[in-house]
């Protein structure tokens, strides 16, 4: 039996949500799942392990989209089954209260699917 140790529920991204490195303005990947405290990304290329990043993405809702900016720590990376793709786990280290509310609202939206 597998036990879940995460404290925050993780919403699966049913649509493509691209993530940009705010420092380089380069798209680095797409969200697999998202919680208030972190996210799983499918990267197009490996990043620097154990590094800090300023990331930006847009969450779509009924009223359009809202940009979210977060400071994140890259905790781990693992090769995906597709060539040249990498799974990566990030922990948020800097999120404003307004951004946190946007995340919570998107995660808790009706019809969401969770992991």
From TrEMBL:
It comes from the Bacteria. Residues 6-108 form the PilZ domain. InterPro entries: PilZ_domain (IPR009875). This is PilZ domain-containing protein. It comes from Luteimonas rhizosphaericola.
């Amino acid at each position: 039996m597998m036990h879940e140790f995460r404290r925050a529920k993780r919403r699966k991204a049913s649509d493509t949500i691209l993530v940009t490195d705010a420092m380089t303005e380069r798209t680095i990947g797409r969200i697999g799942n998202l919680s208030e405290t972190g996210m799983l990304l499918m990267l197009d290329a490996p990043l620097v392990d154990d590094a800090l990043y300023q990331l930006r993405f847009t969450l779509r809702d009924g009223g359009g989209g809202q940009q979210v900016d977060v400071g994140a720590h890259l905790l781990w990376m693992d090769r995906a089954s597709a060539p040249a793709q990498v799974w990566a786990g990030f922990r948020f280290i800097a999120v404003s209260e307004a951004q946190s509310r946007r995340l919570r609202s998107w995660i808790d939206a009706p019809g969401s699917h969770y992991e």
